[in-house]
Specification:
Elements (H helix, E strand, L loop, with lengths): L5 H4 L3 H9 L25 H12 L23 H7 L4 E4 L3 E3 L6 E3 L2 E3 L6 E10 L8 E9 L11 E2 L8 H6 L3 E6 L4 E3 L4 E5 L4 E8 L6 E3 L1 E7 L8 E2 L1 E6 L8 E2 L3 E11 L2 E4 L1 E5 L4 E9 L5 E7 L10 E2 L7 E2 L4 E10 L13 E2 L10 E9 L1 H26 L1
Parallel strand pairs: 10-14
Antiparallel strand pairs: 1-13, 2-12, 3-11, 4-11, 5-9, 5-10, 5-13, 6-8, 6-11, 7-17, 15-26, 16-25, 17-24, 18-23, 18-26, 19-22, 19-26, 20-21, 20-24
Length: 405
């Protein structure tokens, strides 16, 4: 529906209240009571803003004085870059996949073409964003992953995690060792890497696409493209950022969701290096309900990093942590991902609660990943970062105490 004018919005007042009060809209579903609460891309409303909207609806949604209304912002109708909208400018490079024509009715398709990266010198990347190639293709592309086909750059391969000694080289380890520029899914924005970190593109490399496409009842032609923002010359980072899909499923037990039921799985990944986690993006299919990421520290302590308790399949929101709030964890930490599923009628996204659901790549199957970009640090670097954060915390505390006096 259109919500541009008061006349258009007024009939939807009750729905607006419900979506805002339950924090489904704006699409920022992370729990506000646990874990990291400071983000670079926070689009959520404050408690006061939510209460203002609720009071307005409860009062009958009055219009107020039209003369007090600000001019409407320009209407965006094109397939624009969210990074450009957020002030980062246009991407320095755009790499497109070829396009696929999906019939109106068809089984899910995994379209995996290859694209050259047209560069003649190496570039460090500070931000990436994937989008469907046109507005209509946003309806058919569930997710798109841009893998890097390397050209003599072994440091691009992640070696800092493991999923257990009993499964060396198992499926999760192998996937996380395949360098990824970005994973995109419905409703996601961009990946913005922490200052001093990034990904390196080398001449002669290619992008191998993995695009999950599903039919929507009409024929649509489309593909994916990735926008790439460079670091300026002389500002190149010293650290690599690695994209990892931390699993929420124990591969020895897999996934078994009976009809008309709830279910829960969990997965464990060991950090072999001192690690800073830059962002969190939970990924499910239609039965996904909740996901929690917890750090189990080497001393046995536990720390909840983030929790999304009301996942929405239509918004695979990426939560980018503020630099000073991004979790900094010692080597030996275990990342524990817990995932909950709702295969009942209460789940509005559920196409058929009478069906058994197992693990799989189709939209009607299920999976659970916590997509996170990570950076690794030596012991000396890790200690220096901890000391830097401690000093900032002490300064902030002292400043607050002086203001109160």
């Amino acid at each position: 529906m259109s919500l541009i004018t008061y006349q258009e919005a007024r009939p939807w007042a009750r729905s607006i209240k419900e979506r805002v009060a339950t924090r489904q809209m704006p699409p920022w579903h992370i729990d506000r009571s646990v874990g990291v609460q400071h983000f670079k891309n926070d689009m959520s409303l404050s408690d006061d803003q939510v209460e203002t909207i609720v009071r307005w609806v409860d009062a009958g949604a009055p219009q107020g004085d039209p003369k007090d209304m600000p001019a409407p912002p320009p209407l965006v109708t094109d397939n624009g870059w969210k990074g450009q909208k957020d002030g980062f400018g246009a991407p320095d490079l755009v790499v497109k996949s070829s396009e696929y024509t999906m019939p109106a009715e068809h089984q899910d398709v995994w379209y995996r073409p290859m694209s050259d990266i047209p560069i003649t010198e190496s570039h460090w990347v500070k931000m990436v964003e994937i989008r469907p190639t046109n507005m209509k293709s946003r309806k058919i592309i569930h997710h798109s992953i841009a893998y890097l086909v390397l050209n003599n750059d072994p440091d691009a391969v992640n070696q800092g995690t493991a999923n257990g000694p009993d499964r060396p080289g198992g499926p999760d380890d192998l996937v996380n060792r395949r360098p990824q520029l970005m994973e995109w899914a419905i409703g996601k924005g961009y990946d913005l890497f922490r200052p001093g970190t990034g990904k390196l593109l080398v001449p002669g490399e290619k992008i191998s696409w993995d695009q999950h496409i599903h039919a929507i009842g009409e024929e649509v032609t489309g593909g994916s493209e990735i926008g790439i923002w460079y670091y300026k010359k002389g500002e190149e980072p010293k650290k690599r950022s690695y994209l990892i899909g931390f699993t929420g499923i124990d591969r020895t037990k897999m996934l078994d969701i009976p009809p008309n039921s709830m279910a829960m799985t969990e997965g464990f990944t060991v950090l072999k290096e001192n690690t800073l986690i830059e962002n969190f993006q939970p990924h499910f299919h239609l039965r996904g309900k909740s996901m929690q990421v917890e750090a189990i520290l080497p001393d046995g302590g536990k720390q909840v990093i983030s929790y999304v308790g009301n996942f929405n399949f239509n918004w695979m929101t990426n939560y980018i942590y503020d630099d000073d709030a991004a979790p900094l964890l010692p080597k030996g930490t275990v990342i524990h991902v817990s995932a909950w599923y709702d295969n009942t009628k209460a789940n509005k996204n559920n196409p058929d609660p009478d069906q058994w659901v197992g693990y799989g790549d189709r939209t009607v199957d299920e999976m659970a990943h916590a997509w996170m970009n990570v950076t690794y640090f030596t012991d000396a670097e890790y200690k220096a970062l901890l000391a830097e954060r401690k000093a900032k915390t002490v300064k902030t505390t002292n400043d607050n105490e002086r203001q109160q006096q």
